[in-house]
Amino acid sequence: MKAALITPHANREGGRPLLFESYFQMLIFEFCVGSFSVCECLGSIHFLGAQKCDGSDGPFINRAEWSAAFYETFDPNDENGLEASLGRVISVRDKLHQDRLGMRENIDWHEFGLEQAFNPARTVLNILLRHQIELVPETTNLING
Asked: What percent of the chain is helix, strand and coil (3-state, nearest 5)?
């Protein structure tokens, strides 16, 4: 849904979105957070599967573990640039999300723009969707190229 709002504004003739800039950036940030959550979930599932664990004991899975399983599953040779794109998504997500109080970086709102944040998140989802392309509706705006 966020991509459906972001994409038409980003591709508008003249290059300027109709949405107020701060709202446009927050939509992009929310898209990155959603993309991050999908990746964290899928990476955790694949990590647990490799450990032959169903997750019922509620183990903590750290970022290095789930991300390694995620990359290995969806872009093992990094042919599609998944690691760099997800790294950028993680960086954007971490700008506002604090895992520990007082650890937030200074925020440069320009980093929440189309090229800096939306496109890497869209690339990540694009790679995931292409992994099982037969299940993807033809009308999605998340597949590019």
From this structure: 65, 0, 35
Tokens of 118: 């939306």
Please tell me the distance from the alpha carbon of residue 138 to that of residue 10, in angstroms, as a whole number: 21
- Residues near 54 by Cβ (< 8 Å), separated by ≥ 6? 48
Q: Provide the residue ranges of all domains of the chain, joining segments of one domain with +.
A: 21-50+58-135
**Claim: this prediction has a pTM higher than 0.90:** no
Nearest alpha carbon to residue 83 among 68, 96, 93: 68
- Interatomic CA distance for residues 99 and 104, integer angstroms: 9
Place of tokens 């004991």: 57
- Which residues touch 53 (CB under 8 Å, ≥6 apart)? 59
Place of tokens 């709202």: 23
Q: What is the pLDDT of residues 90-118, one digit of tens each?
A: 988 887 766 555 656 667 777 788 888 88
Place of tokens 């990476």: 43
